[in-house]
Amino acid sequence: MISRISSFWASDIGWSFRGSPVAILSAIMVVVLLMAALFAPWITPQNPFDPSELNLANGFSPPLQENPFTNDFFVFGADNQGRDVFSTILYGLRISLMVGVLAVAFGLVLGVSLGLIAGYVGGRVDSIIMRTADIQLTFPAILIAMLIFGIAKGVAPIEYRDQVAIWVLIVAIGLSDWVPFARVVRGAAMVQKNKDFVLAAKLAGQGPMTIMFRHILPNAMSPILVIATISLALAIIAEATLSFLGVGAPPTKPSLGTLIRVGQEFALSGEWWILFFPALTLLMLALSVNSLGDWLRDALNPSLKS
Amino acid sequence: MRTPSEFTVPKDRRASDSLVSVLGLSRTFDVSPPFLNRLIERLPKRTLKAVTDVSFNVERGTVFALVGESGSGKTTIGRMVVGLMEPSAGNVLIDGERSGPDSRRGGVQMVFQDPYASLNPRWRVRDIIAEPVVAQGGKATGIAEQLLEKVGLSADDAKLFPHQFSGGQRQRIGIARALASNPKLIVCDEPTSALDVSVQAQVLNLMSDLKDEFGLTYIFISHDLTVVRHMADRIGVLYLGRLVEEAPVEELFTDAKHPYTRMLLEAAPRMDAFGREASIPIGEIPDPISPPPGCAFHPRCPLATEVCRRSVPAMQPVNKGRVACHHAL
After folding, report:
1. Does residue B274 register a pLDDT over 70?
2. Which of A8, A64, B3, B80 is most buried, judged by most C-beta within 10 A?
C-alpha cells in the first residue's frame, strides 16, 4: 500500500497532482467528506433517526448557541424536530454518496459493456446501440430518471415503497448516464480492434469476450476513469435534484437533497441553518468531485501535456 | 546450407511436399458509398479488387517471399493465409486442410510489421508470449522465459512491459510469441520494415536460425528486395493484386522474365554498383478500384503493345518459375 502511494507520487500523474493546488484541495475535501460519511455513527453526537434520542424542546435551536430550555448545544443548529443538523448532514451524505457511487457503477458497467460490443462488433449492432443512445440523449437525464422512478413507484406495493426507493433511484440515475461511457468506449474499441495485438490475439484463438475485456478495455481505462469521476458529481446532483423535487430519497432516509427540501420550508421564516448547511455540504461535495475530475481529465490527456 | 537446386522439386512431387497451397485466391472489398448516398445520388456500388486469382505453393521448410509495392495485396494475402480474413474466392490449404477461423489454431502464426502496435501495452511480456498457448487451454509455465532466451533476450525480461523495450527487442518478443504455439508456418508481414538497418540484419539472422532450429516454413512479405534476397528460397512478385512472376531466388535475381520485376531490380540499391546510373521506376501503381484493362502493368511497361491493353496474360511456366506476361523476356 505504502509502495503504491509512493509510486503514484513519483509518477507523471503524481507530479501533475503536486503541481495543482486545486486538485490537492479537492482531493482533501473528497477524502474528508468520504470519511465523515463512512464513520458518521461514531462522529455524530446523536442518531437523528432514532426518536428516543430526540427532544422536541430542541426544535429550531440556532447554531453555536446553547438552547435555553435543555442546555443542549448544536454546532449547525437543530431542525424543527430537534434533530442536530450536523448529524442529519452526515447521515444524508451517506445516502447521497451511496446513491451516487452505485448509480455511476451501474451506468459504467452498462455503458462500458454496450460500448465495447458496439465498437467491436460494429455494423448493425453498433447502429442499434448508438442510435438508442442518441435518442436517449435528446431527453434530459432528470426527466428519464423521473419517468423510471414514477413507473417503479407505481408498480411497487405501498409498504415496500420506502425500501425500494433508494434502489430505484440508483437504477434510474444509472440508466440515465450510461451514454457517455458507451460513446467513449466505443470510440476506443474501434481504434484498438484494428491494432495488430488484437489480430495476434485472434490468431492465438482468443474469443471475442477475452479480446474485448482483456485486450481492448485495459487500453480504454483512462477516459473511463475521467468520465466516472465527472459522472459521480453529476449523479450526486441528479440525486439531490430528484430528492428536492420529492421523487427521490424518502423522508425516513433523507439524502442531502431531501434535507434541502425540508430546509427550504423554513428559510424565509428565519431558521436559515436548516437549509444552509446541507446546501453548503452538497456544494462542496459536487464542486470538489467535479474539479478532481477536471484535473484528472487534463492529467491523463497526453495531447494537453506541454 | 542447402543449395537453391535442392528446392526445385519436380512439378509432380510438388503437391505432396507443399505445406501451403494457395489456389485461385481472390479478395474484393466493398468500398461503396453509404446506403443513403447510393439511394439518393444514384451512385453505383463499388468494389476494390485487392487480390485476384493468386496461386502458389510453399514447400515445407522453405521461405516463400511475396514482394510488391504498397497496395499490391501482399498483406491481404498474408491475412487470408493465416485465416484472419475470408477469401472472396479460392482456397488456402495448409497441410491439406482449409485455412479458416477455427481450422488451424496455433499451427499458423504471424509476425507483424509494427512492433509498437503488435504487443498490448498493458500486458506483461510473459503473458504476451504465452497467449497462444493459454488461449488453447495449455500450460504456459516457463514458456515465456525459455523463448525469450531463444530469441536473444533474458528470462528476467518476462516480467516487464513492452514499453520498456526498443523496437528490435519488441520484434524479438513478437517472434517469441509466434513460436510459443509450436507452429508449422509463420507468416512474416514486413517484420523488419519498422526497424533500423543495423537491427534489421540481427532480426533476419535470428529468424533464419530459428527456422532451422524449429523446422519452420515462412511466408515472408516484404517490399524490400535486398531483405528478400537474404531470406527467401522462392519469390513471388505481386502487381495490383496479381502474381506476375514466381521463381527461385537466384533465377529471379539473375534472369527476371517480367518487365515489372526487372524494373524493381534495377531500382534496388546494389553494393557493387556505386556511381551507376540507377533507373527510377516510372509511374505509380494504378487505382485498384478501376484497374487498367488487360495487363494491369501496361501503362508503365516499356514493352506494352496492343495485346497487353486487351487481354490479361496467363501464368506460363518458364525454366523453374512462372511468369504472366505477353512479352516475357
Report:
1. no
2. B80
Put simply, the answer to whether B135 touches A195 (Cβ < 8 Å) is no
Residues B28 and B167 both lie in one domain: no
B326 lies in some domain = no
Q: Note whether A195 contacts B: Cβ–Cβ < 8 A.
A: yes
Query: Same domain, yes or no, for B154 and B231?
Result: no
Q: Taking CA atoms, what residue in A is nearest to B115?
A: A196
Which range is least confidently modeled, A41-45, A146-150, B179-183? A146-150
Residue B314: inside a domain? no
How many interface pairs between A and B have CB atoms less than 8 angstroms apart? Answer: 55
**B74 and B190 together in one domain:** yes
Q: Are residues B130 and B262 in the same domain?
A: no
Q: Quote the pLDDT of residue B10.
A: 43
For residue A303, the model assigns a pLDDT of 58
> Residue B158 sits in which domain range?
119-182
Q: Which residues contact A55 (CB under 8 A, 6 or more apart)?
A: A70, A72, A82
Per-residue pLDDT, B5: 41
More confident residue, B143 or B96: B143
Separation CA B145–CA B154 (nearest Å): 7
Q: How close B178 comes to chain A (CA, Å)?
A: 9
Let me know whether B189 and B257 are in one domain. yes
ipTM of the complex: 0.83
Q: Which residues of B touch A197 (CB under 8 A)?
A: 117-120, 128
Share of chain B above pLDDT 70, in %: 90
Task: Identify all chain B residues contacting A192, using CB atoms and an 8 Å cutoff.
Answer: none
Is B136 in contact with A205 (Cβ distance < 8 A)? Answer: yes
Would an 8 Å CB–CB cutoff place A193 in contact with chain B?
no
Architecture of domain A85-304: Orthogonal Bundle (1.10)
Q: For chain B, where are the alpha helices, taking DSSP H only?
A: 11-17, 35-41, 74-82, 125-134, 143-150, 167-180, 197-214, 225-231, 249-254, 259-267, 306-310
Pick from B94, B76, B68: nearest CA to B25:
B76
A200 contact residues in B (CB cutoff 8 A): 110, 112, 118, 131, 174, 177
